[in-house]
Amino acid sequence: MTQFQIAEWNRRFIREEVKTGEICIDATAGTGRDTVFLAELVGRNGRVLAYDIQQEALRQTEERLRVGGFKERVDLFCKSHTRMGEDVQENTIACIMFNFGYLPGGDHAISTKADTSIQAMKTGLKLLRPGGLMSLCIYSGGDSGHQEKEAILSFLKALDSHQFLAIVSTYFNRNNHPPIPALVYKLGAAKRNS
After folding, report:
1. How would residue 138 be classed by pLDDT, with cut points 50, 70 and 90?
2. Cβ–Cβ < 8 Å for 14, 95
3. On the CB side of 50, how many CA atoms lie within 13 Å of its CA?
4. What is the pLDDT of residue 144?
5. Which helix (H) or strand (E) element contains residue 64?
6. What is the pLDDT of residue 84?
7. What pLDDT is stored for residue 136 in this prediction?
8. What's the half-sphere exposure (Cβ side, CA atoms, 13 Å) at 80?
9. Could you report the per-residue pLDDT of 35-51, keeping only the tens digit for each?
10. Both ends of the chain: CA-CA distance in Å?
11. How many CB atoms sit inside 10 A of residue 143's CB?
């Protein structure tokens, strides 16, 4: 492994799970890196839905998609990730990616919050297909996220172990509130395109 950043750590697992032709969600589009990553994985016959409440985030995401040639594979939504259930059916999504915190380079006052993040995760777990994966990048340093981090970790700990497998990792020897990578697998046999 050449990179040790949190997003790349989670992407290693996502690459093994998502197949061409599937549907994925970037629940927090941000600058669009994860949206482009998912668009590459799903291929020409797949679909990615990307959500953000900030128009600037969607503008940056759209530009990355245009440069990468992936715009036709992605639907962008300027609305909360709590509403992603309005756009897809339950048990159909291969992967949902979350990056909690604020838009890199953006206003720190606009960030994800514990209550809406938990609500979005609950919705996301219903949307995942059996064998689907939810990726969480939990940032809590500086001026944001300590309450949100604790709420997310408590939520993951309480998940029904017969329905979900929650894996939480840590950068154990790093100081200053390092980010926490987490994965949630929806148990059950996956129906995949080959």
Report:
1. confident
2. yes
3. 30
4. 53
5. helix 55-68
6. 95
7. 93
8. 14
9. 999 999 999 999 999 99
10. 27
11. 9
- For helices 33-42 and 55-68, what crossing angle results, to 10°? 40
Q: Amino acid identity, residue 190?
A: A
Side chain identity at 127, as an amino acid letter? L
Residue the block writes with tokens 């992603």: 84
Give mean pLDDT, residues 53-58: 89
DSSP state of 81: G
Instruction: Judge whether residue 124 has pLDDT over 90.
Output: yes
**What does the pLDDT read at residue 111?**
58
Model confidence band, residue 169 (pLDDT cutoffs 50, 70, 90): confident
DSSP 59: H
Please give, one letter per residue, the 3-state secondary structure of 113-177: CHHHHHHHHHHHHHHEEEEEEEEEEECCCCCCCHHHHHHHHHHHHCCCCCCEEEEECCCCCCCCC
Here the tokens at position 147 are: 């309450």
Q: Cβ of 152: how many Cβ atoms within 10 Å?
A: 24
Site of tokens 């992605």: 74
Give which of 150, 93, 124, 109 is closest to 28, Cα–Cα.
124
